[in-house]
Write a structure and sequence with these properties.
Layout (H helix, E strand, L loop, with lengths): L1 H17 L9 H34 L17 H29 L7 E8 L2 E12 L2 E5 L2 E4 L4 E7 L4 E4 L6 E4 L5 E5 L5 E7 L11 E7 L1 H15 L3 H12 L5 E2 L4 E2 L6 H4 L5 H9 L18 H4 L2 H15 L5
Parallel strand pairs: 1-5, 4-10
Antiparallel strand pairs: 1-2, 2-3, 5-8, 6-7, 6-9, 9-10, 11-12
Helix pairs in contact: 1-2, 2-3, 5-9
Bound molecules: dinuclear copper ion.
The site of dinuclear copper ion (CUA) has 9 residues, from loops.
């Protein structure tokens, strides 16, 4: 019976391996994590097949004949059997524990010289800061979209400005919580050029499902070109920066035709800001509870944007919103 179970288990394990269940492998870490995943899965499939096979066989073989009102024959313990079914799980669980710790250490191993990206999470957006790359005058490069070079080992230092979020790019496999007050880290070495989703995987409030961004992996040359382009835009003035700030911080919750965003968590800015003046737009950002649009709840929008943005950023954002919604009398 056990041999039949093992044979069925082996066949099922092969089927499990043939079907592509997981997202593409987009990082060195994905290969390591997937190996752990399949190691555990194959063990589980085999154990399940043996246990289910023996159970089904026993139910059929020892079923009660019609009309039999007996208690059945008495059962005594079997020391040999008990040793076997204790030792096998101990060996399997120990093997899984050892293999996973080695794999995790391997996945997070990074050379001393490496790129760092700071990940800041907040309801309901991601901000990526590149401490090693300056836009100009000590201002580090920041972006709402995660752009990284191919084949470069990257350390992500992750934190949150409010509740707990979790940073995850499925194609990279590595997942890490973002917690206010502490900095967590994870390591990824992208091995595939392309655009992948950045997903928040911790239920963090009304806009959790919209808390997405994208990770764009570029060749080293394209990455350098992107950095240069960001430097050029930064030199161009307030409202251009305002648009970038809007898209990376506000667009996942707010619709604004000019920016091409369609968030539904907060009010549609094309209608609520239409023709409003500068004071109103500024107040709506720094003190969102001062006036709540009909059909929306207070305390959904974070109230710390005044501390988060520099004065210059805030002015750029207000200027951009006035331009985009035709307000400010100008
Ligand atoms: Cu942030 Cu869910």
């Amino acid at each position: 019976m056990t041999l039949v179970g093992l044979a069925v288990g082996a066949a099922l394990a092969v089927v499990a391996l043939v079907i592509p269940w997981l997202p593409d492998q987009g990082a060195e870490q994905a290969r390591i994590i997937d190996n752990v995943y399949w190691f555990v899965t194959i063990i589980c499939v085999a154990v399940f097949a043996v246990v289910a096979g023996v159970s089904v066989y026993a139910v059929w073989k020892f079923r009660v004949p019609p009309g039999d009102m007996d208690d059945g024959s008495p059962i005594h313990g079997h020391t040999g059997l008990e040793i076997v079914w204790t030792v096998i799980p101990v060996v399997l669980v120990t093997a899984i524990a050892v293999y996973s710790s080695v794999a995790l250490a391997q996945a997070e191993d990074i050379p001393d010289e490496h790129m760092v990206v700071d990940v800041s999470a907040r309801q309901f957006a991601w901000t990526f800061t590149y401490p090693g790359i300056e836009l100009g005058e000590g201002q580090p490069l920041t972006s709402g979209e995660l752009v990284v070079p191919l084949d470069e080992p990257i350390e992500f230092r992750i934190t949150s400005q409010d509740v707990i979020h979790s940073f995850w790019v499925p194609e990279w496999r590595m997942k890490q919580d973002a917690v206010r007050g502490i900095t967590t880290r994870t390591v990824v070495q992208p091995t595939k050029v392309g655009v992948f989703p950045v997903v928040c995987t911790e239920l963090c409030g009304l806009g959790h499902a919209t808390m997405r961004s994208q990770a764009r992996v570029l060749s080293a040359a394209d990455f350098e070109a992107w950095v240069q382009e960001r430097r050029r835009l930064a030199a161009e003035g307030a409202s251009v920066q305002g648009e970038q700030l809007f898209v990376s911080n506000c667009g996942s919750c707010h619709t604004l035709a000019e920016a091409g965003t369609d968030g539904q968590t907060g009010p549609d800015l094309d209608s609520v800001l239409e023709g409003r003046d500068e004071d109103f737009v500024r107040e709506s950002i720094v003190d969102p509870n001062a006036e709540i649009s009909e059909g929306f709840q207070p305390d959904v929008m974070p109230q710390n944007y005044e501390e988060m943005f520099t004065d210059q950023q805030l002015t750029g954002l207000v200027e951009y919103l006035l331009e985009a919604t035709g307000g400010g009398g100008g």
